[in-house]
Structures are given as structure tokens and as C-alpha cells.
Amino acid sequence: MDDATLMRPLVTVSYAQTLDGRLATSNGSSRWISANDSLRFAHKLRASHDAVVVGAKTVRRDDPRLTVRHNVEGEDPIRVVTDSLLRTSLSAKVLANGAAEGTILAATENAPDERYEEVSALGAKILRLPGDPDGGVHLRSLMAELHRLGVASAMVEGGATLITALLRERLVDRIAVCIAPKILGRGIEAVGDLGIHDLERCVVLENISLTTYGPDIVLEADLAYCDE
Ligand SMILES: NC(=O)c1ccc[n+]([C@@H]2O[C@H](COP(=O)([O-])OP(=O)(O)OC[C@H]3O[C@@H](n4cnc5c(N)ncnc54)[C@H](OP(=O)(O)O)[C@@H]3O)[C@@H](O)[C@H]2O)c1
Fold first, then answer.
1. Spans in the chain with pLDDT lower than 50
2. Which of 18, 31, 39, 57 to mutate to test ligand 1, by most ligand atoms within 8 A of the CB atom?
3. Confidence (pLDDT) at 187
4. What is the pLDDT of residue 30?
5. Domains of the chain, CATH where assigned
6. Ligand 1, from 38, 62, 82, 169: best to mutate by most atoms within 8 Å of Cβ?
7. Are 111 and 86 in contact (CB under 8 A)?
8. How far apart are CA 97 and CA 65, in angstroms?
């Protein structure tokens, strides 16, 4: 499935980082990097997308609801978790108390059947997708499947592993990063290795807008990839 044939949603990656590019402390704590004003921006962004996508470790670490709140009007997007082996807890907020009805777990064919039964019994949709060479979900297949399900726009909220994998696959069209006026030093870096060794091959931001929300700066831009 190459870029020319892949039918997929428009993908926006959004996260909050410190000035020195950290998503979380080295023990994984990321609450609350951004201030309240920019949290509202993030919820507006959620409301403007058909789906919100996060990695399984973000669900395990933060247990987010991934709903639209903070006095923002609009419908909750479909929640999508990349969870190869369906290890998301049945009591996670994306599954418990009826939330499962609006949640898709993207798994691989290696996910155990008994987990499949347990999670689908709650009402969640499970996609069994091909695996990638690292055992994760094949992201192009996930995007193609979301498109087939009618998802025209997807907001990816992290964490770093998923963001990095999507950037590496050139599956990100836009970025909306909240930069908090904080310096953390060691911690989880927002974007890991993209295999870029030459500055001329870096991903370039275009059509940039900068907005301040209280003490935070939100940078929104389109991404441009160099020719391979
Ligand atoms: N500051 C922010 O805005 C923000 C936002 C979100 C998260 N965070 C922080 O980020 C941390 C979690 O990030 P993380 O990097 O550890 O994990 P992550 O990106 O949330 O989740 C990665 C996991 O997703 C699953 N996955 C399945 N297929 C994948 C694929 N093709 N590519 C990538 N992942 C795939 C894998 O788990 P399985 O093997 O179980 O499938 C993988 O380990 C937490 O500390 C959280 O607080 C911060």
C-alpha cells in the first residue's frame, strides 16, 4: 500500500510538550504539562475530528476518557487505541461504563481469542489488522480501515511511540503542538528516531500559525516530507 493508493483520513498529531520537547517525565507522568486554557483548545480539536487515536501505553499510563469536555460543544470523536494484543484493561475509561460502544481497539491477528470475546462483549469494535515487523499494528492498514469506516479526520494524541511511528510512515498531515513554558530536562521525548541523518531530509512545517493560550503557545502547521 503506497502513498498513491492509500485512502486514509487526514491525520493531525496533537500533544503538549515542555519547551525542551518532553511529553512526560521519565517515569511517564504528563499531567498537567499544559495550562487550562490550552486544554480547551485540545478539546475543541477533538470535537472537530471524527476519531481520536492513542497508543495502548497512554491508555495504561493515563487512563484518558478521550471525550469532549471543558465546556466545549460538539460530539465525542470515535476513540481508537492501537493495542496489538488487546491488553487494555476492561475497567479503562475508554471501555468501562458504556464507553466501549464508541471505542475501536486496533489489534493484530496475535491478539488472544478470549480477550477478543471479553472486549467485544462490552460493545467495543475490534479491528484485527496485519502486524508490522515490530509486532505492532500495521499503521497503513489501520488508516485504510478507518477510512473504510467513514473516518475522514483523525487526531492522534500520543504517546511518543505512536507519534514517531506515524511520522516515520509519513502518515501525518498536520501538527498542533502545545508548548508549555516549562523545562523538564530528562524525560520522554515527543518524537523519537525518524532515521533522518541529513538536515535536508527533515520534516518541514508549513503554513504555520501560533496562538497563545494563557502561558502556553500552540503551534499549528501542515507537514511537508522531502522526496524519498
Ligand atoms: N504530553 C502529551 O500530550 C501526552 C500525550 C499522550 C501521552 N503522553 C505520555 O506518553 C507516555 C506514553 O507514550 P509511549 O510512547 O510510552 O506509548 P504510546 O505511544 O502511548 O503507546 C505505544 C503502544 O501502542 C501500541 N502500538 C500498537 N501498534 C503500534 C504501532 N504500529 N506503533 C506504535 N505503537 C503501537 C504498542 O503497545 P502494544 O504492544 O500493547 O500494542 C506500543 O507499545 C505516557 O507517559 C503518557 O503520559 C503524553
1. none
2. 57
3. 96
4. 82
5. 10-214 (3.40.430.10)
6. 82
7. yes
8. 11
